[in-house]
From TrEMBL:
The keyword Signal applies. InterPro entries: TRAP_TAXI. This is TRAP transporter solute receptor, TAXI family. The lineage of its organism: Bacteria, Pseudomonadati, Pseudomonadota, Alphaproteobacteria, Rhodobacterales. It comes from Roseovarius nanhaiticus. The keyword DNA repair does not apply. Residues 1-20 form the signal peptide. Keywords: Signal. Gene3D superfamilies: Periplasmic binding protein-like II.
Length: 327
């Protein structure tokens, strides 16, 4: 059984390598960047990892770039300042509609879907010493860190806290920086929207005692009704602090590509990422959801033609023609 799995994996990797060798690369860029987010967050770890993997497999220079997260990534990819990026379905929809706060009125239609990444759970963390064990325990005027300005967390979590009746002072910053502020007593709570495990939370667990706060059933239902999120459960195995699964809500993330990139280049990059999930989960556990069958989680963005071709050929994807860029 093990030998069969190894042979199958080797065949997939070899097929991917052969695919990249057999295509005409004359119009490929000589280098690329992937827009991620702040250091200490899942986007940075995941994005830098797959950027390095694609660069190595395709034999060109590439890497992750620190950014403000999903909103800024939509802008960077739309303008071509970054070839690739990562976004969340909510910010993607706002960007297409011209309501991205980075460039109000600009409809960012040059950012195309590339491949499904994972779900972003919304979770709340506080120091155990604070006594905050539920959302209702958060005191009036609490200083809450919502992540980098313009990030998915910063875009949606304040509105979610409003919906749940929390009165707070808003703070922004990179996840690592906010984790340090929480530990130093400068923040009461951090409201994370990031793939789990969030590196900053894992680091906090090592250094101090924390509470990872779940939503009640009623709170979860309110959020699902008011926002483009679905129910989610953070598995107890995700963090050493958790003794049982924690109730949450989540939003899907997708990798994006500038729509004008050569189809063969994007198809080759997708092939590298989607053909070997074991290597991707080695980069970050959240990649357990980076699977071909999750192509259908994109309900917002038009597909890059090269990506659409890969999913139709390899995942039996039934992508409508009007959802493929250029059609």
């Amino acid at each position: 059984m093990k030998l069969t799995a190894i042979l199958a994996s080797t065949t997939i990797i070899a097929a991917g390598a052969a695919f990249a060798q057999d295509v005409d690369k004359s119009d490929w860029p000589s280098s690329f960047t992937v827009g991620t987010a702040s250091q200490g967050g899942t986007y940075f770890a995941y994005g830098s990892g797959w950027a390095n993997l694609v660069a190595e497999e395709l034999g060109i220079t590439g890497g992750g770039e620190v950014t403000g997260g999903p909103m800024q990534n939509m802008a960077l990819v739309h303008t071509g300042e970054a070839a690739f990026g990562m976004t969340t379905m909510g910010p993607a929809a706002e960007s297409l509609a011209g309501t991205n706060p980075i460039a109000p009125g600009l409809e960012m239609t040059q950012a195309c879907a590339m491949f499904p990444m994972y779900q972003t759970p919304f979770s709340v963390t506080a120091l155990a010493s604070s006594g905050i064990e539920s959302v209702s325990d958060i005191p009036d005027g609490a200083k809450i860190g919502f992540g980098p300005a313009g990030s998915t967390s910063d875009t949606y979590f304040p509105r979610m806290m409003d919906t749940l009746g929390v009165n707070y002072e808003r703070r922004n910053g990179g996840w690592s920086d906010l984790g340090g502020q929480l530990q130093d007593g400068l923040l009461d709570v951090i409201a994370f929207a990031a793939g789990v495990p969030v590196p900053a939370v894992s680091q906090l667990e090592v250094q101090t005692d924390v509470n990872i706060i779940e939503f009640t059933e009623e709170e979860q239902a309110k959020l699902i009704e008011a926002f483009p999120v679905s129910d989610f459960s953070i598995k107890a195995s995700t963090y050493s602090t958790l003794e049982e699964d924690a109730r949450s809500v989540s939003m899907w993330n997708f990798s994006i590509a500038n729509c004008d990139l050569p189809a063969s280049f994007v198809k080759a990059a997708v092939d590298v990422v989607m053909s070997d999930n074991e290597r991707m989960t080695g980069i970050h556990k959240a990649a357990a959801s980076t699977l071909p069958e999750n192509w259908d989680k994109n309900k917002v963005l038009k597909w890059h033609p090269g990506a659409a071709e890969w999913f139709m050929e390899n995942a039996g994807a039934d992508i409508p023609a009007d959802m493929i860029y250029g059609n």
